[in-house]
Amino acid sequence: MLTEIAQRIEELRDMLNKLNYEYHVLDKPSVSDAEYDKYMQELMRLEEEHPEFLTDDSPSLRVGGQVLDVFTKVTHTSPMLSLGNAFNEADLHDFDRKVRQGSGREHIRYVCELKIDGLAVSLRYENGLFVQGATRGDGVTGEDITQNLKTIKAIPLRLKESATMEVRGEAYMPKRSFVKLNEEKEEKGEVLFANPRNAAAGSLRQLDPKIAAQRNLSFFVYGLTNLEGQTISSHSEALDYLDALGFKTNTHRRVCGSIEEVIAYVEEWQIKRPELDYEIDGIVIKVDDVTIQQQLGLTAKSPRWAIAYKFPAEEVVTKLLDIELNV
Ligand SMILES: CC(C)(C)c1nc(N2CCN(c3ncccn3)CC2)c2cc(C(N)=O)c(N)nc2n1
Fold this sequence. Notes:
5-stranded mixed sheet; 19% strand; binds the ligand CC(C)(C)c1nc(N2CCN(c3ncccn3)CC2)c2cc(C(N)=O)c(N)nc2n1
């Protein structure tokens, strides 16, 4: 009898993790929410009756685990670096010139990524299992927010194959969820969040994971480090590998063969930015080839092989201003 229950729990767990992947990573749900909830209710009931069968990768943790009274500190395996900034085309040409001079290469291949305006986090996986997640903090030490991160359905609890590594990415709140959350807060007479980044950070700093679970946060992976057992030769290859493992990467990324192509991409997305369902504050440009990355190395706290092009701040008409204008 017990083995049948254990088997049913495992069956439900694997199925719900797969349904999560289809819905929140591929954005292609294969069952209705009602059907998903039915399976989730059954799993939570069985785990309630048999807590000895609860596992770290159970999708029941997506609805929020135990309330914490404090976040413990986590020292990142490798420091989470900062990014130098570029504000115009000349800065990008400067960056490209330094990369070519520093590497002695005539032509450099770059990867351009939308710069998601959320909260940088680091996730540790051991043998394919999500074991710990932390905020960036000061780059060296962050806060353990594992339970909150387990409520983000775009973060896999178990990978498609066993891998031990540290993954970097941006947790964010989609624009629609941000508007809805502020409407709810307004109705309750609570203080509004100023922007989706603050809303995401505020949600992940909650000690009660059930609150984070209600905030509809998502996650884009953008980096990989301390991978055990194999070497990755380019950033593009790292992102393709992370895709294959079950992570959500940003599909708008583009490999560019020259800084002119990078500039075209930057101009394109400065225009297309409002179409996105999440906020971006620029474009991150990275040298693709890992050998060249290693050749260029780091300054005190940021890579010489990457830069963040910052979009000019959008004129933000705050709610308050609206109210004043309407008076
Ligand atoms: C791994 C490197 C260092 C190249 C890197 N670092 C990033 N960031 C560093 C600075 N960060 C930071 N955050 C707070 C305070 C200071 N720096 C925030 C993340 C990246 C952020 C994004 C993004 N947002 O979409 C991205 N697609 N790629 C990144 N790549």
